[in-house]
Amino acid sequence: MALDHASRRTFAIISHPDAGKTTLTEKLLLAGGAIRLAGAVRTRGDQRRARSDWMKIEQDRGISVTSSVMTFDYDGHTCNLLDTPGHEDFSEDTYRTLTAVDSAIMVIDAAKGIESQTRKLFEVCRLRDIPIITFVNKVDREGRDGFELLDEIQEMLALDVSPMIWPIGMGSDFYGCYDLRDGSFSRASRRGGHFDETLKVPSPEKLGEMADVPDHIVTASSEAIELAQAGYAPFDQASFLEGHLTPVIFGSALNEFSVQPLLDLIIGHAPSPRPSPAEPREVKPDEDKVTGFIFKVQANMDKNHRDRVAFMRVCSGHFKRGMKLKQVRTSKDILVHSPIFFLAQDREIAEDAQAGDVIGIPNHGTVRVGDTFTEGEALRFTGLPAFAPEALRRVRLGDMTRVKQMRAALEDLAEEGLIQVFQPEVGSQWIVGVVGVLQLDVLASRAKQEYGVTLEFEASPYEMARWVTSEDAAALATFRERNRLAMATDRDGSYVFLAKGSWELDYAAKTYEDIRFLRTKELQ
């Protein structure tokens, strides 16, 4: 692997479901030489599965429901690609993953433009000033006008756009992609096939005689390219790194148009590791001492070993296998003797890592999301929140002899951030909280597959959950005593108020002015 942090590129891919994010992930891995055969996301049966989707439910449904990490070397650089769930029901996992990246690729469907989840994820990136590269996908299918899409990005996201690669035709009239920077033209030797040929074209007007593009397509494309170059901002590196400008590439992930230029753009222009926010001070990537934080925990990635892996973003220093790191939350030292790099479910031992890298730390439940690791300094990385769930359900176990397995499933999957688990102070039935009901399907599927437990869910009398705190310990004790039937604790032992609706929550907030009712909680 490359030797210093400046050669690292750590980036995420974000999009609305079905925009082609997982397919693009596969093709970037293929272009980078990390895999030899990309798996079609929609294949079934014994055909090859998408490489980044390793859970059974992901393979069955053709969606990503958990973030995965893929590390590979390309052109003298080490790339850490973080594939995130597109479905909004898993936005909390995505949000935490975005705390671990330095840039992002935003995938937009050429027919649909900017969709709701794309916009939400973009806003998360904006909060952290993460530079964005835009990939307009599926131009080999019928789609919207390129200028309409560029203007939508400008207006809806308040971003300057700088088109770099333009489609020559679209849908049934698609002939390839023209690079506005150097005049190269990418095409398929067989119409409708994969990209397999690049021609050097002195000007768009020459596409007809040099690349067999029909005259009416050449005329329309030449005019569009001239307007695209004159009507939008030229690429500016400083503006891009500040998050004010996005380079835009039109292409097709499925047929591999513009994938290689996208990877080259990441290597050439995306930022190397940036400073990380922490208390009591910011951490810079070129510091000598190793620091890092856990943004994700995943149980049972390898069902043969019933393992548990914590994903750590290295923020500074040169990590070496066998190092002893301080877990700041517990003040205990942990010997990291078997750190791993990932290619989705595949893994290899990481002998060393630099700032920007993501390594896996196998553990037995001692490491959790939000943990900070250092070589001794009492730091805490900030900005990893838990969000109040939007749906609450009681858990019912069919076979009461498997209570121990149910507890393990709920606690493990809550540690991952897939769900939140609340233990009522009165009563024995566990309550799970989720952002969206698809998480319940994943919980049931994984509990069955990984723990041999059949879980069922029933309606809860509660609609809302809020963490409660107070600077006045006596006031908090009084509130808990008067609301015992509505009180619970989360996996950290923090107090949670369960409300039957917004009216009850508002009434409690007005009645108990010394109590704070929180929608988010900082993980630490």
Give a brief description.
This protein has 524 residues and is α+β, with helices and mostly antiparallel strands.
What does this structure look like?
The strands form 7 sheets. Strands 2-3-1-4-5-10-6-7-8-9 form a 10-stranded mixed beta sheet. The protein has an 8-stranded antiparallel beta sheet with strand order 27-24-26-25-29-30-28-31. The longest helix is centred in the middle third of the chain and has 17 residues, at 215-231. The protein folds into 3 domains: 5-66 and 104-269, P-loop containing nucleotide triphosphate hydrolases (Rossmann fold), CATH 3.40.50; 278-381, Rossmann fold (3-Layer(aba) Sandwich), CATH 3.40.50.300; 385-522, Alpha-Beta Plaits (2-Layer Sandwich), CATH 3.30.70. The chain is of the alpha+beta class and 524 residues long. It is globular and about 80 Å long. The chain contains 13 helices and 32 strands. Helix 1 (21-31) crosses helix 9 and helix 10 crosses helix 11.
